[in-house]
Design brief:
It contains seven helices and eleven strands. By secondary structure, it is α/β, with parallel strands linked by helices. It has two domains: 131 residues, Nucleotidyltransferase, domain 5, CATH 3.30.420; 88 residues, ATPase, nucleotide binding domain (Nucleotidyltransferase, domain 5). Helix 4 packs across helix 6. It is globular. The termini are far apart. The N terminus is likely disordered.
Length: 247
């Protein structure tokens, strides 16, 4: 489904295992545990920074699912795009935990996890195009197109970042669903092109956990994890302009 940190997948081959998934790319964040085909999700509290909530939220999510850290077979982290600081915290936290436990890590792009959340509640529906659309702040959105055939999703291109007016919409495959915080924020502008505009139906970590449980999703050694920023960080842009960030 993703070609950056995963392979295009025509099947969801869910293994019997325990997957712990971490998402820190949105302000609230979320944790999920996938256990033998069933998911337990814990949205982030949002009252303190992500770094202050970890690893306590890991342990809370595992406790909610009735498992311990030693029961985990696979670790997943949402690797971006999203908040630059959030992406870095999530990746560093996943690397640290994986190194101490000797685990490989599944890196799941944000937009793929969002699209999977949509897919999970629309299986059996009509074929259509789906655009995962995350509010990128600064008047921009992160977006990625997927084709939904009624059961599976297939990515139609790489993720992009653009101002809402610059996005183009896939056509010719039935209806068009726009899903995510970006879709909600700018949905009034897009009502003429989409018959389904809604936020992600569950915390993003839930979609990441299901994807990571698939036998075909790549598992990487901790040192090989790479963030998927899509947009260049502010500090790099400011450095090129020769002035401090925020000036």
């Amino acid at each position: 489904m993703s070609r950056e940190n995963g392979a295009d997948r025509r099947e969801y081959n869910i293994a019997v295992m325990v997957v712990l998934a971490l998402e820190t790319v949105t302000p609230l964040g979320s944790m999920a545990v996938w256990r033998d085909g069933h998911g337990t999700v814990r949205p982030g509290a949002g009252v303190s920074p992500h770094a202050a909530r970890l690893p306590g939220e890991w342990l809370g999510a595992l406790s909610d699912a009735g498992v311990g850290i030693d029961d985990v077979d696979r670790l997943a982290v949402v690797c971006g795009p999203g908040s630059f600081t959030g992406v870095r915290i999530g990746m560093a936290s996943a690397q640290g935990l994986a190194l101490t436990r000797g685990w490989a890590v599944a890196a799941v792009p944000t937009l793929d996890a969002m699209a999977e959340c949509w897919r999970a509640v629309h299986v059996g529906g009509a074929a259509r195009m789906v655009v995962a659309c995350l509010d990128g702040m600064r008047g921009e959105v992160f977006a990625r197109d997927f084709y939904f055939d009624g059961q599976f999703l297939v990515a139609q291109g790489p993720p992009v970042v653009a101002v809402p007016e610059a996005l183009t919409w896939p056509t010719g495959h039935g209806g068009l669903s726009l899903v995510g915080s970006g879709a909600v924020r700018y949905g009034a502008r897009w009502a003429c092109v989409s018959d389904d505009i809604a936020d992600v139906p569950e915390p993003i970590a839930a979609g990441a956990a299901r994807l990571a449980a698939g036998a075909e999703w790549p598992q990487l050694p901790p040192h090989a994890l790479q963030p998927l920023y899509v947009r260049r960080p502010d500090v790099e842009l400011a450095r090129e302009r020769g002035r401090p960030v925020g000036s």
